[in-house]
Amino acid sequence: KNLAGAFCQPAAVICDTDCLKTLPPDVFADGAAEAVKTGVLSDEALFALFEDGTLTADPGEVIARCVAYKAGVVERDEKEQGERKLLNLGHTVGHAIEKCSGYVIPHGHAVAAGLAVIALGWTEESLAARITACLSKNGLPTGTDYSAEALAEAALSDKKRAGGDITLVVPRKIGHCELRKVPVADLLPIIRAGLEA
């Protein structure tokens, strides 16, 4: 009956937060990166939990809020035609960092650095400062040693590229990010600005 949808039950997410206590700090931080990213996308209330250290004090609340946010986005945009693309925040530069490192740098750390580079290169100074401070507080990087040229070249193979344009997710304030389609030629100066800020 599942195919007909008659007896389908809502999906659930089960997470034993006690297992998080067994993780080394860098592995915990790797997961925290996606949660901080969700805070930037979602709202001030969620983001504040990362700024005040609730992530480690009460991970259950943070996980529940992050799951609810992402589930809502996916439900509204199942095929990634619009809103769901926002979940790629930090990923264009993050994927480039992963690629440049030969995939030695873990995904969460790369996404955190990618988020910081875009924030520092293309948002108001006060917002960029909040985002980078929050990442640092949660044991995450806010930059990379790879050059802007290497990152821009690596990013050109990203799935968010369409011909001569690439779509970036740009924070405008906590809880509001925009999808910005930019010519690939503009990517290098944007990344360079983020690395030099």
The radius of gyration computed from the alpha-carbon positions, rounded to a whole number of angstroms, is 17 Å
Q: What are the low-pLDDT stretches, counting only 5+ consecutive residues below 50?
A: none
Oligomer: single chain
**Order of strands across the widest beta sheet?**
1-2-3
Report the span from N to C terminus.
56 Å
How many E-type strands?
A: 3
What characterizes the major β-sheet?
A: 3 strands, antiparallel
Q: How confident is the prediction overall: mean pLDDT?
A: 89
Structural class: mainly alpha
Order of helices and strands: HHHHHHHHEEEH
Range of helix content? 40-55%
Number of helices: 9
Shape descriptor? globular
Q: What share of residues are in beta strands?
A: 5-15%
Structure characterization notes:
This protein is mainly α and 197 residues long. Helices cover 53% and strands 10% of the residues. A three-stranded antiparallel beta sheet has the order 1-2-3. A hairpin with a 2-residue loop joins β2 (165-173) and β3. It is globular. The model has no long low-confidence stretch (mean pLDDT 89).
